[in-house]
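Input record (one chain):
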Amino acid sequence: MSSRTTRLVAIYLGLAGLVALVFFQTAHFSFVNYDDGSYVFENPNIRAGLNARGIVWAFTHIHAQNWHPLTSISHMIDCQFFGLNAGQHHLVNVGLHTVAALLLFAFLWHSTDALWASAITAAIFAIHPLRVESVAWISERKDVLSGVFFMLTLVAYVRYVRAPRWQRMALVAACFTFGLMSKPMLVTTPIVLLLLDYWPFRRFEKQGLWKVILEKVPLIILALGSCTATLIAQRLAIGTAEQLPLAWRINNALVSYVNYLRQMFWPVDLVPFYVHPEARLATWEIVGAIILLVGITVAVFLLRRKLRFLLVGWLWYVVMLLPVIGVVQVGLQGRADRYTYLPQIGVIMAVVWAIRDLTSIWRARAIVLAPASVALIGTLSFLSYRQTTQWRDTESLWSYTLSLSPENDVALAGLAGIEVVRGQADDAITHYRQALALRGGNAAAHYGLAVALSRQGKIDEAIEHWQRSLEIQPDNTDARNYLGTALAGIGRTREAIEQWQQTLAFDPDNGNAANNLGWILATSPDSTLRDGAKAVAYAKRAISVPGGNNPLVYRTLAAAYAENGQFADAISAAEHAKELVRATGNSELVSELDRCIELFRQQRTLHVKVSPEN
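The corresponding structure, as predicted from the sequence alone:
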């Protein structure tokens, strides 16, 4: 084996080892109550594993306010093989991140032939503390999965540049498409490829600006399609809550660009949710951010002839952050660590290549830079390992967040969510109210407070908070189902039916809503609402979706059949429900089903006796 091959093997193994050293601890971590429910363990389509129905659902439905079918399918594959073993889901994230880091090194090395600069850049990307949120949070599968496809796009583009053929550009487009279907943030990739044409490929001089732009047109069309799908998905999901004023959003975007740079060079006090500053930014912060950003841009432009990589790295950072910088506001976070997953590569690359270039005449460069690199990577690995431990479970995550950000409404609501599960309703209500006092537009806090209040029998107040939650986030089908149940419980049955019908409008495969509608239409005391045929249709619909093979749904089907005069079918459905419920040991439900079966038999006998045919 040649010395070059030996070095390459050592670099690949070293990168993989670094990622494992920092992130393998997540194999023992749990799910957290921060989106993991909607992405995985509370989503019946995901929990059902990989199947044809689920694949169709992934491509035809909005999932967690976005259209990212490959991300949804990747979660299905995890559930297919690992069930709800959270540690294994975490390790898939780690594996994908490892692949992304290795591909980044391969791309940089093949495009620049700078072996050690490429290795250092990939290592910093792999273990920087800003990576923790993307890797240690199961819901951020979309980051690491799209990262793999982004790196594959770059590697495929290197092959195309070396020997331009339409087949190779088709491969670039395919990798880019898969990336967009993992996370739409990749829409700026065509611009990144144009930057790479400037450096390191220098294609502008060889082929001309317009030619390299025109060959990107198919990629630009794909990006525009992804933008359209994303805007439609988020408009459907987010609802009527007022947007923050444009001036606030622009000011925050400018300051966020600087904050991300600060966090890159001083990565401490990182939290999963940064409260939006709204109008609280000081004038000096905004002016200072403008001066710094303009100053850097002017400097790298003036140095573009001698140090092209500075301009490319800086614009890579600026451009890739544009979709998530907050001018188009989605959610109420001020910024998020996960948004730096791919944009930060540009800054890392620019800094590493600048050091490489500026120290090229040092005789003792290796003696100085080698230990400095080891020290830097060691320090970043330690900080990342410590940061990762905060994600081991929900309580650790939110307790840590509140220790750094006491007035963090998302952390208060997250902590309250644990207290609801533990039955500590009073504590949960206190924390939810504190969260809403900080930000009245927190949909999750309204939803959680409603659940806690309903468990204390305060139904009217719970209904108000469910309604407020839905004004902010109309696609929260859990809130609609709870609201419908609460309305039905106090006799507002027609309003309950409207809520469940709206749930099915958002999510046609929502088994809870279909089951509730079937039950009401089969058993309502109001005879004007009962409709046996529709009840049967809704009950069958509930059975057909993932998770539908359960005793409560078959009890609904039995009641619907009975209301529709199909007593033999009602008895059969109730018997099947009994078979399912025996495994749970719920003797009370078994007794109820026995009574239903006896009643259905009596009704069948009576029906036969009075039937005109007899």
